Protein: SDR family NAD(P)-dependent oxidoreductase
Organism: Candidatus Faecalibacterium intestinigallinarum
Amino acid sequence: MAHILIVGANQGIGYYIVKRLLATGHSVSVLDVNTNHLASLQKEYPERLFSMIADAQNLASIQDGVSQSIKIFGNIDAAIHNACFCTFENEQNSDYTMYQKAMNVNFFGALRLAKTVLPYMRKAQKGRIIFTSSGVGITGFANISPYASTKGAIESLAKCLEIENATYGISFHLFHPPLTNTASAQGLPVPKEFKADPQTVGYGLADHLWSKKFVICHSFIQELQIRFSYRHPLFIGRLMTKMTKRAEEKH
């Protein structure tokens, strides 16, 4: 069985990825600013779950967490950056610090994780690194540019690092979940019935963790939607914005 390390998995999609991976026999290390929701899983899988307080914005804490996880479970077979900071405000009402924080957590957090685990993976000549992206990073969307910008940057980073590390036997991938009913999406004015179930999404992503595809989705339908988004980004971005406004007006 494999050792998977995840940054940002105390709740939401990340939590259910962890739960599914543990249930299927893997060892999992979780780094997050809060780990309280993992207590029940820790009791159920005391020998295969390691959790530690760490901040995606703090390189030293990520380095420490990665080092300790390797001491416990050995080499990391897959590392996932799932930490997320999202705001729902337009550019006019978002100052520079808001953009900087989103970039620090979402983009530089992913870069910190990659630069920390890559030396170990290069030495082992194997491994995979996955960044959790978002459809809005492809299409754009109203009142979410700080977050969407970071996801667009993550997309480019993953492509570059995939090319640079292929000779080491290391692959890079993107998780592309749908709009999901999680804490980070609560500020989006969309009815809950329009949002996917986090357990369904988390389990699906965990089951597709070893996919050879660059873009990994939890279901075939989501994969088709993402493909269409890549082909017609602005059309989808404008359409989703209009649909969200209509849903908000009805509620």
